[in-house]
Amino acid sequence: MSDLDTHPVERVCGGREDVSAAPVHELIPGRVVTIGDDRPVRRMLPTLGRRMVGPWCFLDHTGPDDIADQPGAQIAPHPHMGLQTVSWLREGEMLHRDSEGNTATVRPGQLGLMTSGRGIAHSEESPVPHPRFLHNVQLWTALPDAHRNTDPHFELHADLPRFTAPGLDGTVIMGEVDGARSPGAAYSPIVGADLTLAADADLRLPLERDFEYAVIATEPGAIVDGVPVPVGSLLYLGCGRRDLALRTESAANLILIGGEPFEEKIVMWWNFVGRSHDEITEARTQWQAAERFGEVHGYHAPRLDAPELPTLPLKPRGRVR
């Protein structure tokens, strides 16, 4: 996945400032952005109200889109460093290729997890032929300093652990929920889960007290701790919860994200996560010179050029704006 904004801004995220030690309800509207293949997506992180939730630093929700007579997703080769990409499909398929020689098709209910480490390039596209609908959530996690220069690699996990309760069918994407643990490699205390809720559900989901949490809705109808969550918004929940009340008026779906507050401050720009302006500048220069990130073979179009860097130096702004 890629941030294909042609005029990306630098963002400083992380640190423990503005992490609520107590439960809160912050309903934060996402913003609609258009990515490189002209598809509108709902960007939930980073957004005006919050930049990170645990190690999660980027979250886009797309669809459901009818692509029966369209090429669907077409994301040309682009670089990543210092992060993990998490691909989660509700409907459709996504063909992944990367500069480490991996090719894989990610399908609904499967975890496509790419650890960029010191640097990798990849492409993403709807295969030919492809299902009629595309509905997906794309996320990044920031790698902590001790692991951000690790060797790049890709994982595809087709069988993920599930957990159930009356009215709930859950899948663990990353980390652990209610004793069920994802096989995906994690470098920080983290959780990510898909929560499919039946109509008229009423239950409590166990949580880790030291984690901060948020939810997004990919379908309408869910009420989280008394707050209706519309599609297109992120509900930030803070820390200090042992469980979370979930209720529905109709069948619904939520994505739960969380983890220990990410203590390090990071710089995000385009598809890079680093620690300084100079580090981001170096990565951009190397990508433009076809160095460091390798080459993706098999995609039908040229790779993406990096946008121009901003002229102003970075000004730290913390976890929220």
UniProtKB/TrEMBL annotation:
Family: Belongs to the pirin family.
Transmembrane helix recorded as keyword: no
Record lineage: Bacteria, Bacillati, Actinomycetota, Actinomycetes, Kitasatosporales
Taxonomic source organism: Yinghuangia soli
Cofactor binding description: Binds 1 Fe cation per subunit.
Pirin N-terminal domain: residues covered: 41-140
UniProt xrefs under PANTHER family: PIRIN, PIRIN-RELATED
Residue ranges of every copy of the Pirin C-terminal domain listed in the record: 193-290
Molecular function in Gene Ontology: metal ion binding
Bilayer-crossing regions: none
Presence of keyword Metal-binding: yes
Listed Gene3D superfamilies: Jelly Rolls
CC cofactor: Fe cation
Residues that, per the record, bind Fe cation: 78, 80, 122, 124
Keywords, in A-Z order: Iron, Metal-binding
InterPro entries: Pirin, Pirin_C_dom, Pirin_N_dom, RmlC-like_jellyroll, RmlC_Cupin_sf
Name of this chain's protein: Pirin family protein
Signal peptide: none
SUPFAM superfamilies noted in UniProt: RmlC-like cupins (SSF51182)
